[in-house]
Amino acid sequence: MPDKVKPTIRRKRQPKPPARGFPWSSKWLIGGGVIGAIVLVVYLSFALSGPEAKGRLAPVPVPSSPGTGGTVSSSLPNFSLALYQGQEILGSQQPRFHDLLGKQPLVLNFWASNCPPCSAEMPEFEKVWRKYKGQVLFFGLDVGQFAGFGGPEDSRRTLRSLGITYPAAPAPDISAVRGLQVQALPSTYFITADGVVYKSWVGTLNREKLTDLIEELLKAAPTSPAPAPATASGPVTYSIEGQTHVPVGQAVTYRTTPPTSGDHWPRWAPCGLYSEGLLDELVVHNLEHGQVVVHYNLSDPAQSQQLREVLYGIAGFKDWGVARPYERIPQGTVVLTAWGVMQRLPGVDGSAIKAFFNKYSQGGASTPEVLPCSGA
What we know:
5-stranded mixed beta sheet, 2 domains, Glutaredoxin, alpha/beta
């Protein structure tokens, strides 16, 4: 009887576990971030839906013709930005979003700290930023906290570890994503100097493609005519926009620049002459209390010294006056505001400034309350 042959037991080969993390390297940046007709990006399911932010990795088609749009100022609210970095470039630790517009073309990049494609392209952005610094402003708007892709501390670490120096900040709320209909990370918007979206790009960008798009942007950017010289005007009265207290940090949109009234934060600025900007929501509260706010945009040291001497020569300034630099008015000008009143000056006009203080400080503009800022 033949020996029994033992059956051979074939064991199923177990599939290898997927590698942890993502093998991001330069291959993801080939062709400006395009692999065939698809880019691997972080898809944001919250972009056009509710605030319960979720995110996932998914292939998203690259638009065949990058999107263009209207003005950014009409799409996005003028929210405050608590910068991670870049205050020395923008001139303020908490600029308004609309302050990024109107001076030079803007490259607006939506990113998150725990978004591998974002981290892959950021060193490329840094190299191009250094090349075009002074011609184009780069800004990184972090939306990771709304999608579970990292919080502010993660983002600060990412910026440090990658050596990024261009300005960056967390988006204060979801309106930034919804306003431009951002559906994936990274997404980059190329905005002309007058605030119009020239092109947008979904997915990673390498240095060559980013450079090409910036060159296009610079050619498309309109050459703004030199502003007409400012002329002196008398005080102008404006309708009152509101006077409700809103939470500190909440941005308010005002109809005039600078504002003369409106909703504002419950705190206000102490009296004095400031060398750094104060936010609109802060100084509008000063106006409500019957104080005068002086806004100046002076690059000439002699003019700055002249303004200092004028203000400190006004007896009521130390109790009823606040003066702040304000880049949203023409260079070389001064604007005076009281509650519901504004006067524009083409320079430092001591007589006009004193007359405005005498007429409108201490509640002269029929303010709701009369309180000095010396006790703020």
